[in-house]
Specification:
With about 400 residues, the chain is an alpha/beta fold. Helices cover about 40% and strands about 15% of the residues. α6 links the parallel β5 and β6. The protein is globular, with a radius of gyration of 22 Å.
Length: about 400
């Protein structure tokens, strides 16, 4: 197959034509600063207001509860750091999970160095948060629970409604990193008792460098970026109007197509899982089989290194990612794989394939055939596999 087969949509997505078209006028024609009072600036402000309303509707929030950010990582940092600062008088204990994105985990490490205590709740073998452990972790000085809506590596969707109910009953703020889940599955902040929610445009065919933080009305967290009075005094900096416009168009399209897209991606996902499970021996599906994002497939293959698999897939025109952090220069396996109980040698052989509505069954067939061929080739070079085969005979 000559064309590129893109199966890394959890990393980023191709921008939709609708998003690009929405951005173009604000890159050249309507270039005014939204804080200006003249008409050129009010065009920008009007566009921003409309997108704020669009995003609010998508999660059942009010427009004044949506604050634009530079992306999901900034939104996560803001939610944790500003909450810690604002509620420090009440307590200095925060609860999160062991499989959070590093935007949350590294922020928690930052807060630990500043006197806050962090409890990292475990997950089961499918990556689902242990609710009993969460309940036991709550203390009188607990001020925040932060648990991601769905995991970026293994796709497991967390019991967010139950977590939200626990937090609400105990009078604790609840933040969820919904970067992977937003507009991929339905989310309603009131139904799930969510107080803060982070999301990013480039995961839903929007532009990079723009996201939002939902902050429920009445929560008194402070500014994270200081300077001007943008975002009602809570987030300084000239607004990224082209990015916001593109975000709004991406949300419009994603919400309108969500039901159909979920069905199509789930069908492709299950087809991919079935072929890999049946045709490649000594592999393991990571993440919950049913409670997972519609577009996420993650397997661990014994006796191979994920990095080698990725390189060889790239040579065949297939873009994917590994559950192993060795692809980013670290020799340590993914913290998510270790948290679900995989030993190091199996965690290192992980592969994440994340789909979009543009993928076809033909592409998936080519990908599976390629994975089969590469895994077999890598295992032939593995002394561990050779020993395993000898012992099995």
């Amino acid at each position: 197959m000559d064309k590129i087969i893109y199966l890394d949509n959890a990393a980023t997505t191709r921008m939709s034509k609708e998003a690009v078209d929405a951005m173009l006028p604000f890159l050249a024609e309507h270039y005014g600063n939204a804080s200006s009072i003249y008409s050129l600036g009010t065009e920008s402000k009007k566009a921003m207001t409309e997108v704020r309303e669009t995003i609010a509707r998508s999660i059942g929030a009010a427009p004044q509860e949506i604050y634009f950010t530079g992306g999901g990582s900034e939104a996560d940092n803001w939610a944790l750091v500003a909450t810690a600062e604002a509620y420090a008088d009440k307590g200095k204990h925060i609860i999160t999970s062991k499989i959070e994105h590093h935007a949350v985990l590294h922020t928690c490490e930052y807060l630990q160095k500043r006197g806050f205590e962090i409890t990292y709740v475990g997950v089961d073998e499918n990556g689902i948060l242990k609710l009993d452990e969460l309940k036991k972790a709550i203390r009188p000085d607990t001020i925040l629970i932060s648990v991601m809506f769905a995991n970026n590596e293994i796709g497991t969707i967390q019991p967010i409604k139950e977590i939200g109910e626990i937090a609400k009953e105990r009078g604790i703020l609840f933040h969820t990193d919904a970067v992977q889940a937003y507009c991929h599955v339905p989310i309603n902040v009131d139904e799930y008792h969510i107080d803060m929610l982070s999301a990013s445009a480039h995961k839903i065919n929007g532009p990079k460098g723009i996201g939002f933080l939902y902050i429920r009305k009445g929560i008194k967290i402070r500014s994270f970026i200081h300077g001007g009075q943008q975002e009602r005094g809570r987030r300084a900096g000239t607004e990224n109007i082209p990015g916001i416009a593109g975000f709004g168009a991406a949300v419009d399209k994603a919400v309108a197509s969500m039901e159909e897209r979920m069905a199509r991606e789930t069908e492709l996902r299950d087809y991919l899982i079935r072929r890999i499970s049946e045709e490649i021996p000594y592999c393991r599906l990571n993440g919950d089989r049913a409670k997972r994002l519609p577009n996420n497939v993650n397997f661990s293959f014994r006796f191979i290194e994920g990095e080698s698999l990725l390189i060889m897939l790239d040579m065949k025109g297939i873009c994917a990612s590994s559950g192993s952090a060795c692809t980013s220069g670290s020799l340590d396996p993914s913290h998510v794989m270790l948290a679900i109980g995989l030993p190091h040698e199996i965690a290192h052989g992980s592969l994440r394939l994340t789909l979009s509505e543009e993928n076809t069954r033909e592409e998936l067939d080519y990908a599976v055939d390629s994975i089969k061929e590469i895994v077999a080739k890598l295992r032939k070079m593995s002394p561990l596999y050779e020993d395993f085969v000898k012992k099995s005979k």
